[in-house]
Design goal:
two-stranded antiparallel sheet, single chain, globular, Ubiquitin-like (UB roll), five-stranded mixed beta sheet, 22% strand, mainly beta, binds FE2/S2 (inorganic) cluster
Length: 117
């Protein structure tokens, strides 16, 4: 006898045995964007940070003083660690910026403060 939990995930469409989530992109188009000249893709509705991470990119900025790599940290727009150049605009927070098809994303040379970009 199989163990089924009443009201569990099975049968409610919130997941399945393969680990896919409902609305997880099966059959949906992906958006294409460039990062430092490389063409990458991500599921629609991704933030720039999520799209970069999904493509294995973990750092897209260097600190001013020591040149240490920075990428996603807080993920909620509070820390400004994730600044990136987005469609020619410097110092854009990647974690709160939605990605669109054809976007151009580049490593940021920002200071980490939008006013000093
Ligand atoms: S990761 Fe902190 S502001 Fe984006």
């Amino acid at each position: 006898m199989s163990a089924r939990r009443p009201g569990g995930a099975a049968g409610r469409g919130s997941g399945n045995a393969s680990g896919e989530e409902a609305g997880g992109g099966e059959g949906r188009a992906r958006v294409e964007f460039s990062f430092d000249g490389r063409v990458l893709s991500a599921p629609p509705g991704s933030t720039v940070a999520a799209a970069l991470c999904a493509n294995g990119v973990q750092a897209w900025r260097r600190t001013r003083g020591r040149g240490e790599p920075r990428g996603l940290f807080c993920g909620i727009g509070a820390c400004f660690d994730c600044l990136v150049e987005h469609n020619g605009r410097p110092a854009v927070r990647a974690c709160v910026t939605l990605l669109h098809d054809g976007d151009r994303v580049a490593t940021s040379s920002s200071t980490g403060r939008p006013s000093r970009a």
